[in-house]
Write a structure and sequence with these properties.
Number of strands: 17
Radius of gyration: 28 Å
Bound molecules: histidyl-adenosine monophosphate
CATH architecture of the largest domain: 2-Layer Sandwich
Largest sheet: 9 strands, mixed
Strand order of the largest sheet: 1-5-6-12-11-10-7-9-8
Helix content: 25-40%
């Protein structure tokens, strides 16, 4: 038996229906905020991701050379492709441009619960400016999405990567070493950051100051520790969020992010119930368009780890009940199969979700099948009833049966 590749999943019908249900909720929230959906290719030129995504992503890239000798990579995320698309085809559109997307991403990671090699992101990008209002809009959308899904136990953290970058620069870390050190700070792996910072000539006291800074978490009072413009910027952001009713978040000066392109505000959400892979969402403000050959435009965005947030919902016991179908048409005997087919077609045309027996089953077995596919009503087609142009309608949950003229069947099922 051929198995699916490691780190990938199949989605069987029950799971797929559940996923579509939640995907639909996210899509409707994004539209409510004035975002419009886009789609980009599953694969891109590798360079798109090598340019600025940082060492984490590059190490995990599914990359190959195609038959035309081009370096191709399966997308590990959708921000770089979205900005490439903006540079290629949307750069003259009126700003801000508010886009959202849903699709699979690929990262060659060590698979475990909540971490896959093929996973799905639902994300949004707001292209046009770097203002507290833009960031607030992105964070508000993220919070509304989590709320719409119904997740209760999660933590939202907002930080500013620009401040940390500045501090590292002032400490004498050369640009080339910044990404590697930030990566260690992201994981709070201070003991691994020490030798890298020592090699760059940073003295221990400055280093400890930086570590302490990244460990600073709290409410608005924390902003007293953020110097200059960034502090003012964050204060404006907090006041916008408060105005929109978003108050349940921490200021966390240690939010670093695993990707390298962020320049300003950064934010993440975690669902503690997920354990090691608890990050359900990540984003921030960045500037990539100039790097991809366009004008210099700031953007802000985020992506929800769709698989992870569904896992978190499951852990909270939020169950999804499958929709089932409206009706199942059961021919009582072989001589009425044609009439049963005709009635099935009529119901489907009327927009009723409807199935019928196509396995030449006896009535008892067909009824069993009707309940296994979640039919709410059974339409029992028998010779005697047909003589009066009627069928028997059976409510599958109560078992109640009524004789219904075929001319009234659609209305009865719809009601
Ligand atoms: P990211 O933090 O790399 O950011 O990924 C976003 C989310 O995708 C994570 O918070 C996590 O929930 C989920 N995720 C990442 N890797 C995996 C995996 N191997 N298996 C399952 N879920 C995973 C980005 O990708 C940025 N493009 C977000 C963004 C949009 N920033 C600005 N705009």
């Amino acid at each position: 038996m051929i198995q699916r590749p490691r780190g990938t999943r199949d989605f069987l019908p029950d799971e797929m229906e559940r996923r579509r249900h939640y995907e639909g909720k996210l899509r409707s929230v994004a539209k409510r905020f004035g975002f419009r959906e886009t789609a980009t290719p599953i694969f891109e030129d590798s360079e798109l991701f090598i340019l600025r995504s940082g060492p984490n992503i590059v190490d995990e890239l599914y990359a190959f050379r195609d038959k035309g000798d081009r370096e191709i990579a399966l997308r590990p995320e959708l921000t770089a492709p979205t900005i490439r698309m903006f540079v290629n085809s949307m750069s003259n559109d009126p700003k801000p441009i508010k886009l959202f997307y849903f699709g699979q991403c690929f990262r060659y990671e060590r698979p475990q619960s909540g971490r896959y090699r093929e996973f799905f992101q639902f994300g949004a990008e707001l292209i046009g400016s770097a203002t507290p209002d833009t960031d607030a809009e992105a964070i508000a959308l993220a919070a509304a999405m989590i709320e719409e899904l119904g997740l209760k136990d999660f933590r939202l953290k907002v930080g500013h990567i620009g401040v940390l970058r500045q501090k590292l620069k002032e400490a004498g870390i050369p640009d080339g070493n910044l990404a590697e050190i930030l990566q260690k700070l992201d994981k709070k792996a201070y003991e691994e950051a020490v030798p890298l910072m020592e090699a760059a000539g940073v003295d221990r006291e400055v280093m400890d100051g930086i570590f302490e800074f990244t460990d600073t978490v709290g409410g608005i009072e924390v902003l007293d520790r953020v110097p200059g413009d960034a502090g003012d910027y964050l204060r404006s952001l907090v006041s916008r969020l408060t105005a929109m009713g978003i108050e349940d978040f921490d200021i966390d000066l240690g939010v670093v992010r695993g990707l390298d392109y962020y320049t300003g505000v950064v934010f993440e959400a975690e669902a503690p119930a997920l354990g090691a892979e608890k990050q359900i969402l990540g984003g921030g403000s960045y500037s990539l368009s100039e790097l991809f050959g366009g004008e210099d435009v700031f953007s802000t965005g985020f992506a929800i780890g769709f698989d992870r947030i569904l896992l978190a919902l499951e852990k909270e016991g939020l169950e999804y009940e499958n929709e089932g179908i409206d009706a199942y048409v059961v021919p009582v005997s072989d001589d009425v199969r044609s009439e049963a087919a005709e009635i099935t077609a009529m119901l489907r045309k009327a927009g009723i979700s409807c199935d019928t027996d196509i396995m030449e089953r006896k009535m008892g077995k067909a009824m069993k099948h009707a309940s296994s596919v979640g039919a709410r009503q059974a339409v029992i087609v028998g010779t005697k009833e047909l003589e009066s142009d009627s069928v028997t309608l059976r409510d599958m949950s109560s078992g109640e049966q009524t004789l219904v003229p075929i001319s009234e069947l659609i209305g009865r099922i719809q009601s």
